[in-house]
Write a structure and sequence with these properties.
Structural class of chain A: alpha/beta
CATH architecture of chain B: 3-Layer(aba) Sandwich
Number of domains of chain B: 1
CATH class of the largest domain in chain A: Alpha Beta
CATH topology of chain B: Rossmann fold
Radius of gyration of chain B: 18 Å
Helix content of chain A: 40-55%
Number of helices of chain B: 11
CATH topology of the largest domain in chain A: Rossmann fold
Largest sheet of chain A: 7 strands, mixed
Strand content of chain B: 15-25%
Shape of chain B: globular
Order of helices and strands of chain A: EHEHEHEHEHEHEHEEHEEHEEHEHEHH
CATH architecture of the largest domain in chain A: 3-Layer(aba) Sandwich
Bound molecules: thiamine diphosphate, iron/sulfur cluster
Oligomer: heterodimer
Number of strands of chain B: 7
Strand order of the largest sheet of chain B: 2-1-3-4-6-5-7
Shape of chain A: globular
Amino acid sequence: MTRELWKGNNAIAEAAVRAGLEAYFGYPITPQTEVLEYLSRRMPELGRVFVQAESELGAINMVYGAACTGVRVMSTSSSPGVSLMLEGLSYIAGTEVPAVLVNVMRGGPGLGNIAPAQGDYKQAVHGGGHGDYRQIVLAPASIQEAVDLMVLSFDLAEKYRTIVMLILDGSIGQMMEPVEMPPMQKVRRRDWDWATRGRDQHPNGERRFLTSIYLDPIEEEKTNLRLLKRWNIIQANEVRYKDYFLEDAEFVVIGFGTAGRVALSAVRAARAKGIKVGLFRPVTVSPFPFDAVRELVPRTRGFLVVEMNTGQMLDDVQVAIRGRVPIEFYGRPGGVVPLPEDILAEIERLSSDILSVDRDPRQEWFKRMSALTPAG
Amino acid sequence: MVMTTSTDKLIYTRPTAFTETPTHYCPGCTHGIAHRLVAEVLEEMGVIEKTIGVAPVGCSVFAYNYFNTDFVEAPHGRAPAMATGIKRVLPDRVVFTYQGDGDLASIGMGEIVAAAARGEQLTVIFINNANFGMTGGQMAPTTLPGQKTSSSPAGREVSTQGYPIKVAELLATLDGASYVVRRSMHDPANIRKAKKAVRIAFETQVQGLGFSLVELLSTCPTNWGMTPVKALDFVAEQMIPVYPLGDYKVSPAVAVLKI
Ligand SMILES: Cc1ncc(C[n+]2csc(CCOP(=O)(O)OP(=O)(O)O)c2C)c(N)n1
Ligand code: SF4
């Protein structure tokens, strides 16, 4: 096992190459640009496809076209660019072809800033493009995890003919950590029975077409239900999360990505002070680990949701917990990364007796925030 | 299968690049002719089995039902980007887009210019019918000055609604474009010339000579509110003066192509 120091963005680019990435299409945007730059050198070196597209619209539709041929393809972007890609993602979902996208999230809305943020959770998990579809969303908290999930993304995308989106925030994209890179996989062209590669490539020379049009509402309804059926299988088989110090925990912090990582430092510090607190970190934020969170309810006195936004995953946690146990929230939106001390202070508040299921966690947090950072 | 006896001569049949599906186009619409030109060329070149078409959003959205080749259907205007994705991973395939003027010259102007500038080895069949057919005849970037449409009811007023976009002329300025011509489909002589251009465009791609586009002046009798014959006259008398037929870009390598 050899570990080398890698910058996050370069690491996921190399991981994708090793997972058999055959084509990459992208457009520069901070804090994701190193992926594009890395692959502009690496892909041609291996005789694979790299195109710097004219825009994210161009990039995602190149991904869509390549995905229809059944090769491993991806794009990467950051928040404003991903917004432009939503049309294409909806078509990809409607056409049921596999595609992988990375969003190295930054502060928003609008042009926002280039600091690490988690403001696109809702867009990735609940929304995105038009129409009734869902996508797998993976949220790593370290570069090693990002590398491992990058490889997994391609397998999941192909297995379920779905979109897999990896959401990182700028800090994971930009920082350096020791990483064990996955082995180099061969580029494999599988004989998908749906891919459009020209009739002479199909076993019976049959004509194939790929489209997202179902003019007859009954057919579209069937398609929506087929997507949901597949999603139910994904939900049953692909939920992933990490837990820390939960065995005897009375309080549970829930956070994903960098917020989860910072929360872990805070949890360790709280443990050192004798507070029985643990961390639950969703790795698949979609499908969200509803059942795993629910299972914690009977033995937990209070939850603290920590995010780098104004409480987006919070809604999912509330759905999981259904008002049975108090929830508190701590968020730093707009590109501000919470400090372990801040989260530690929040954990200490949990063990005082403020907790109540009647408190609205977002509004209570907002009151505390307003004292610190007047909303203007 | 059409049966012929030894004395009969078969002079007209359905190209094998077509499926049996009847098209949904309005009577007198020249989309059908444009389809046929492409189908005949694909058959003559023997490339049906290695062709992947990219359908647009517009009246020809269902083109994939009519061609006996693999097909995908792109978001509105994005066909050149999708085609780029396909062609880059499968460079030995014949990849073409078929796009209307709303699709290509309005919402998809970014994608087509970029694909041409990159010199993508693609063939684009561009149908200029001076309006948005599918959505009910609204003004397109190609609508003629003064032309009445459902969204320019008083006639296109250039001072507020702008001037026609001349796609062939515009794309011909790009070094990546190797073959860019405009033809019309309003009479048999012009249709024959159009077919030759479609053939050269596909040959350009197959020989790896770069980006090719054939702009075809086309009719939309339904939304123009004309009989099919009047619509053909409109092309000849009103459209051609604004959109002169001709070869706007023929790279030296394409110019010496032997067909
Ligand atoms: C993003 C998006 N915007 C608008 C539409 C609605 N729409 C469908 S077809 C069309 C115009 C098609 O006109 P054109 O490309 O000229 O093709 P024609 O129908 O004339 O052949 C429009 C605006 C759409 N489908 N998608
Ligand atoms: S609406 Fe116009 S372009 Fe569309 S099929 Fe009818 S005549 Fe042709």
